[in-house]
Amino acid sequence: MEGMEDLGNLSREIGPDDEVDPLSLDEVWKQTAAILLARIRAGRYQPGRPIPSIKYLHEELGVSRGTVSRAIDWLKAQGLVRSVYGRGVFVLPEHMRPKNKEEGH
Prior knowledge:
Elements: H1 10-13, H2 28-41, H3 54-61, H4 65-77, E1 81-84, E2 88-91
Antiparallel strand pairs: 1-2
Helix pairs in contact: 2-4, 3-4
């Protein structure tokens, strides 16, 4: 996913317990990605463990499945998570993440 946008200030402003704000000027997928990123940074989603399913996140965050999928695609492009066919999307350990990526900056 080369050329995918960064999250700008959202990556620093949104915390793991924040909610998506439909009235925000920031795109919903970016808010969703920032929440997921904050959860990874806070250790809520542990390295080597799967993040919740798209279905679960769609229901929890109140956004479409496509929005969750786009946010997860952004996390994949950043080298933070990896899909394992038939098993889910897993948070990568620090040593497996690209050194040149700066998680949304």
